[in-house]
């Protein structure tokens, strides 16, 4: 039987007449298994000339690292999310509108309520292995059973609001990693994007370093920053592979990153993580001192974490690769100076410094890093610009390494004939290179490599950039709050927002990995698609979180304890 016939006749897949004529069709499967069912579904969708414009598949998978995983697809009309979580908790964290549901021998009946919350009227349910108590629980939530295994959702309870079909035209301010990644994800969904940049080229501010590092974060309690960083890191790796690969589509190398332990106590915590979390070796591998030293060729007295898929990339080349994927849907408006935004009716206008209108669109996104602090619409957000000076060293001034080495400092392999070391965290606004910052970098580098350095006499060389940082060191992704109108609001969903205005800000030192997932998350929000992250993590990135924290007098630490 062909895949198309299987869809038409089999009860375990949506009928073709159910997705026809729809803009979007979302299928939930509680067991991804070996992927054969998903592959057959995609094949049937492709074969149907009257298919929905977009097919979104959400499936539970047991062989992935914990959390939600968006798997980029070569075809823009298909989205695949794999959720590594138990059924009930996955449903509780999911934000989606489900049109077709496939359940496989679920456990208990507590899943019925969160499932019904996500289900659209008229959605079809096919289930195997249900008992009487589970059917009763599902029926109580509005599922009307046609037989033991099949039901239609007909609840009269209020449903989650569906996002209206957007006008797919956006202004994006800022052509660094944040803005370029968003332009790529929006254009992939059919949006027209006007990318406005104050400079004549991409990545001339915080994204302009010769080499940025990409690596995940580990912690004993697998806290929110760790989970977010892991999701961002894994999505970035998958997206870059789709673009053509690190070192192929853009400058860089997936050479691995070795993060040395700070001391014996830090090493003990790391060993506990390696044992307790059963971290997969392809993601992170703890190396005791002999193994670390053999890999590095330098002393590593307390061992370290090896991130085999980590490495370095030149952010500017990543930006160009992302923009190259946009095609004709992208309009570049570069060299625009410090553009401002103003609302006129249902439209945002971007104005040049002389007042001339650069472009208009119903949606505007601020992705301008520290530059957003100068705009009236975002002046109340608690963003800080931290000066970072990177030191450029000639190859003979430091050890030639097979991978990126980091601890309090970092050292990259040669990037365009230069070793990059750094970077400082300064509170001043001095854009010029200075000898004291280079001395700080070299001093920390000397401690990192435990080796005499010729860098002590290296000429002053490097680059200064200003990271955009939030109080909790997490990005701001989503609709921007209208702080002046917030009043006594106590819930994120009730914080008033500027209509049609969004932010991608606060990437700090992790722009390479934050940018792809944050752009995908914002695009999904704009499109009304299932979100690629757990709602707990989405809320942790909501720009309005600081409105509530300010009202409650919450002082947010830079990061949770136990992070490595």
Automatic annotation (TrEMBL):
Record's SUPFAM superfamilies? FAD/NAD(P)-binding domain
Gene3D superfamilies from the xrefs? D-Amino Acid Oxidase, subunit A, domain 2, FAD/NAD(P)-binding domain
Name the keywords, alphabetized.
Cytoplasm, FAD, Flavoprotein, Methyltransferase, Multifunctional enzyme, Oxidoreductase, S-adenosyl-L-methionine, Transferase, tRNA processing
Among the GO biological process terms of this entry, one is: tRNA wobble uridine modification
Q: Which GO terms describe its molecular function?
A: oxidoreductase activity, acting on the CH-NH group of donors; tRNA (5-methylaminomethyl-2-thiouridylate)(34)-methyltransferase activity
Instruction: Identify the InterPro entries for this entry.
Output: FAD-dep_OxRdtase, FAD/NAD-bd_sf, tRNA_S-uridine_synth_MnmC_C
Protein name per Swiss-Prot or TrEMBL: tRNA 5-methylaminomethyl-2-thiouridine biosynthesis bifunctional protein
């Amino acid at each position: 039987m062909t895949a198309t016939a299987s869809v038409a006749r089999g009860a375990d897949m949506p009928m073709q007449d159910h997705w026809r004529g729809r803009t979007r069709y979302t299928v939930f499967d509680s067991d991804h298994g070996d992927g054969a069912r998903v592959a057959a579904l995609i094949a049937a969708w492709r074969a149907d000339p009257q298919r929905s414009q977009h097919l979104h598949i959400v499936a539970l998978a047991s062989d992935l690292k914990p959390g939600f995983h968006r798997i980029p697809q070569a075809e823009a009309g298909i989205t695949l999310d794999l959720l590594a979580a138990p059924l009930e908790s996955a449903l509780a964290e999911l934000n989606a509108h489900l049109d077709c549901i496939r359940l496989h021998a679920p456990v208990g009946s507590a899943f019925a309520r969160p499932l019904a919350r996500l289900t659209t009227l008229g959605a079809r349910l096919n289930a195997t292995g249900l008992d009487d108590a589970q059917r009763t629980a599902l029926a109580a939530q509005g599922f009307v059973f046609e037989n033991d295994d099949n039901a239609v959702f007909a609840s009269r309870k209020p449903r989650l609001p569906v996002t209206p079909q957007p006008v797919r035209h956006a202004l994006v301010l800022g052509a660094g990693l944040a803005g370029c990644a968003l332009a790529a994800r929006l254009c992939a969904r059919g949006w027209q994007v006007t990318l406005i940049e104050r400079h004549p080229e991409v990545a001339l501010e915080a994204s302009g370093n010769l080499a940025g590092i990409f690596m995940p974060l580990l912690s004993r309690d697998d806290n929110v920053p760790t989970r977010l960083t892991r999701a961002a890191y894994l999505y970035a790796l998958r997206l870059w592979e789709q673009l053509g690969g690190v070192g192929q589509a853009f400058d860089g190398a997936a050479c691995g990153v070795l993060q040395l332990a700070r001391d014996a106590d830090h090493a003990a915590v790391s060993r506990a993580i390696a044992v307790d979390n059963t971290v997969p070796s392809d993601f992170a591998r703890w190396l005791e001192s002999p193994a670390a030293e053999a890999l590095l060729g330098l002393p590593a007295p307390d061992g370290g974490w090896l991130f085999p898929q980590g490495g370095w990339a030149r952010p500017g080349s990543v930006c160009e690769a992302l923009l190259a994927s946009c095609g004709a849907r992208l309009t570049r408006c570069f060299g625009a100076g410090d553009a401002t935004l103003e609302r006129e009716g249902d439209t945002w206008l971007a104005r040049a410094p002389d007042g001339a209108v650069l472009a208009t669109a119903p949606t505007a996104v601020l992705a301008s890093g520290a530059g957003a602090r100068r705009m009236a619409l975002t002046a109340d957000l608690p963003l800080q610009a931290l000066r970072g000076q990177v030191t450029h060293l000639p190859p003979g001034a430091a050890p030639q390494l097979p991978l990126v080495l980091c601890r309090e400092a970092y050292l990259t392999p040669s990037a365009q004939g230069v070793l990059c070391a750094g970077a400082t965290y300064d509170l001043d606004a001095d854009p010029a290179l200075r000898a004291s910052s280079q001395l700080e970098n070299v001093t920390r580098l000397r401690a990192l490599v435990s080796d005499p350095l010729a860098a002590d006499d290296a000429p002053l060389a490097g680059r200064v950039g200003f990271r955009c940082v939030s109080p909790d060191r997490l990005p701001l992704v989503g609709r921007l709050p209208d702080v002046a109108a917030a009043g006594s609001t106590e819930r994120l969903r009730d914080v008033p927002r500027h209509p049609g205005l969004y932010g991608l800000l606060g990437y700090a030192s992790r722009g390479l990995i934050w940018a792809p997932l944050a752009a995908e998350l914002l695009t999904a929000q704009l499109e009304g698609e299932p979100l690629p992250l757990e709602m707990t993590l989405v809320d942790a990135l909501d720009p309005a979180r600081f409105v509530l924290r300010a009202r409650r007098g919450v002082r947010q630490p830079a990061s949770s304890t136990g992070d490595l």
